[in-house]
């Protein structure tokens, strides 16, 4: 799964720590998501989408080989 | 949008504080145990150890921020790998060592017996925990 969390975060001029505090996770978790090393839970994905006022699909997308 | 108010330390600071408190209590438990034990006070050593460990457990369960979902996921993956390693070791070593001992080829040291017994006990606990978890989900 790929994501665009870093783009949304930098567009909002926020640090990883700011975003982490906004969605109640650690800064390391945001860092891992941005580096595609950790796929967040559905709950966290929804929180991030709500925070950036976008759809989950705008933030996260399946790789070509992951799509059904 | 204000992320944190001025008098609220914020979840990240709170998390850091709770993690330090947890780690500090575990370190204090170890230090107290070994120091008092070396001083010839084994009962006091254990009492101090349990007290600090109980404090650490209270911090762990009362904190909403000490672990987030990634920590929980890491714990799940690590536990799974540990069970795989122990399970693999048990499957291969237990019958092999038993056969060697029966054939008088290898005299199994009590330590190895103890380790294999411990690994077996881990699997009994794992099986019980799995059964209970499966029933409740």
Itemize the secondary structure elements and their pairings:
The complex is a heterodimer of chains A (68) and B (137).
Chain A: E1 2-3, H1 5-11, H2 16-23, H3 27-34, H4 42-52, H5 56-59, E2 60-61
Antiparallel strand pairs in A: 1-2
Helix pairs in contact in A: 2-3
Chain B: H1 10-38, H2 42-62, H3 69-102, H4 110-136
Helix pairs in contact in B: 1-2, 3-4
List keywords for this structure.
heterodimer, A: 68 residues, mainly alpha, two-stranded antiparallel ribbon, 56% helix, B: mainly alpha, flat, disordered N terminus
Protein architecture, described:
The complex is a heterodimer of chains A (about 70) and B (about 140). Helices cover about 55% and strands about 5% of the residues of chain A. With about 70 residues, chain A is mainly α. Chain A has a single domain (about 1-60), classed as lambda repressor-like DNA-binding domains (434 Repressor (Amino-terminal Domain)). Chain A has a two-stranded antiparallel sheet with strand order 1-2. In chain A, α2 (about 15-25) packs across α3. The model of chain A has no long low-confidence stretch (mean pLDDT about 95). Chain B has about 140 residues and is an all-alpha fold. Chain B folds into two domains: about 10-60; about 70-135, no CATH class. Chain B is built from four helices and no strands. The radius of gyration of chain B is 22 Å and the shape is flat. Chain B starts with 9 loop residues before the first helix and ends with a helix. The interface of A and B includes residues 18, 41 and 43 of A.
């Amino acid at each position: 799964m790929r994501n665009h969390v870093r783009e949304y975060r930098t567009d909002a001029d926020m640090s990883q720590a700011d975003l982490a505090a906004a969605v109640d996770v650690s800064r390391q978790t945001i860092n891992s998501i941005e580096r595609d090393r950790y796929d967040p839970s559905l709950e966290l994905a929804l929180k991030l989408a709500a925070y950036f006022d976008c759809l989950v699909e705008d933030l996260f997308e399946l790789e070509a080989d992951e799509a059904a | 949008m204000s992320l944190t108010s001025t008098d609220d330390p914020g979840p990240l600071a709170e998390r850091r504080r709770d993690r330090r408190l947890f780690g500090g209590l575990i370190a204090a438990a170890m230090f107290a145990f070994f120091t008092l034990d070396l001083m010839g006070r084994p009962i006091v050593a254990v009492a101090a150890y349990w007290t600090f460990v109980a404090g650490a457990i209270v911090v762990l369960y009362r904190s909403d921020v000490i672990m987030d979902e990634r920590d929980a996921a890491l714990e799940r993956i690590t536990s799974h790998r540990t069970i795989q390693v122990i399970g693999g070791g048990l499957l291969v070593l237990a019958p092999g060592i038993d056969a060697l001992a029966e054939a008088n080829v290898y005299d199994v040291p009590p330590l190895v017996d103890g380790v294999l017994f411990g690994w077996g006990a881990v699997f009994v606990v794992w099986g019980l925990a799995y059964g209970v978890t499966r029933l409740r989900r």
